[in-house]
Amino acid sequence: QSVLTQPPSVSAAPGQKVTISCSGSSSNIGTKYVSWYQQLPGTAPKLLIYDNYKRPSGIPDRFSGSKSGTSATLAITGLQTGDEADYYCGTWDSSLRALVIFGGGTKLTVL
Amino acid sequence: QLQLQESGPGLAKPSETLSLTCSVSGGSISTTNFYWAWIRQPPGKGLEWIGSIYDTETTYYSPSLQSRVTISVDTSTNQFSLKVTSVTAADTAVYYCAKASITGTTRYFDSWGPGTLVTVSS
Fold first, then answer.
1. Pick from A37, A98, A105: which is nearest to B49 by CB?
2. Fewer CB under 10 Å: which end of chain B, C or N?
């Protein structure tokens, strides 16, 4: 059971917008930066968003991140079938000895 | 561009030690402020941070694995390694090595290896 809560699954049609939430607490998301990872089937995770909203070079601006209070959100616009993947949020928690913690992951289905 | 590649046996017997190596290319493993990490993913489950090493010798381990895990760096080969002792079926997972960017406020993994599946079975 992760301290970061993500919905197990979300779905939307191609071309639509979808949001994935990551809920935490004041000791993690509330006071720390959040990152997001995309894991396509059978591949390693890839960094999508860091420092709440920054995108690494090469990540399209269809992907955006935001944070409010103790929750973070990943938004994907103009959905494509190639976006079908598992998405994980990550951060750290000042009350835990772990350097990094991950959410349980959200499976995105593009209908 | 930094590239990472895991290697090691794909099968380990219960109670034995799992050993993996991550080869780093496109950059030096001794680069200041680089953290190197191991992360695992049991089949069908989420990501679990195992541990990290910083500045070639400072280590951090997951509290749940700390008693069984060792991470070390070999600067002569530009590799870092993972050892997990007394393995059980619960240690069956895809193991990833990664480079982490860690400061006082931010922590994220910006380069990953493709992963290697380790099965614990007799």
1. A98
2. N
